[in-house]
Amino acid sequence: MRWENAIVIDAPVDVVWAMTLDVERWPDTTPTMTSVVRLDDGPLRVGGQARVKQPGQSEAVWTVTRLAEGREFTWQTVRMGLVMTGSHLLEPVGGGCRNTLAIEVAGRGALLFGLLFGGLIRRAITTENLGFQAAAVGG
Length: 139
What we know:
The chain has helices spanning 13-21, 26-29, 110-136; strands at 2-9, 35-38, 49-53, 60-68, 72-79, 82-93, 96-106.
């Protein structure tokens, strides 16, 4: 199951990209994140990890699986036997950019998970994207 939200942000790609990589500051931009703590030092990279706490959920360790500089960041965690993949894709649009956030859930039970929590996930990534937009344009 996959859910995504795309929004055009009136800010340069490099501004939104810097916010995307600064995962520990995400709780400042969205109520869907309580805390994000990097578990390694240096720039975010493939194999890098962060402990993420979200409201109503236990902490989860997310591992970066793909990083295309200035364009894409993907990470994964395993919860309840399901592989959850979160992705951030940036595309230039005029003087701004399109920010696409997605969550994909795979594994046994993914369909049931989607039926139970799909609406919540859809609302969460929409809220996160609106938070990125507001922070990027200074609002």
